Amino acid sequence: MTDRIEKLKAFLQTSPEDCFLNHALALEYIKLGDDNQALALFRKNLQHDENYVATYYHLGKLLERVGESEEAITIYAKGMEKAKAAKDMHSYNELQSAYEDLAY
């Protein structure tokens, strides 16, 4: 697994703001149990491109796991707005389901 992390870090040397690469690296950190690194990368993605819809679901789930339920609800809601604007109904439905499971 650390081999994948090293490869992703190498790619990020030339494209540090690449949302796909940062997202993939965050997911690898989650697999290792390094929530802080994953959280930082997900937040970086949203700062760089708040329209990168994939980040919202995984960030919300991570926030739920670390006990930040209110922030997770906010992330899911914003993600639903972005997914709807992008006409990405698959992501919208996933975010809506996560939101409803947590909020109700």
Roughly what is the average pLDDT, rounded to an integer?
Answer: 96
What is the class in the CATH system? Mainly Alpha
What is the H/E string?
Answer: HHHHHH
Structural class: mainly alpha
Q: Which CATH architecture is right? A: Alpha Horseshoe
Task: Work out the helix count.
Answer: 6
Overall form: globular
CATH superfamily: Tetratricopeptide repeat domain
The overall strand count is 0
Proportion of residues in extended strands? under 5%
> What can be said about the biggest beta sheet?
none
Helix content: over 70%
Assign the CATH topology. Serine Threonine Protein Phosphatase 5, Tetratricopeptide repeat
- End-to-end separation in angstroms reads 36 Å
Low-confidence segments, given as residue ranges, are none
Domain count, please report it. Answer: 1
What does the secondary structure layout of this molecule look like, with pairings?
Blueprint lengths: L1 H13 L4 H14 L2 H14 L5 H12 L3 H17 L3 H15 L1
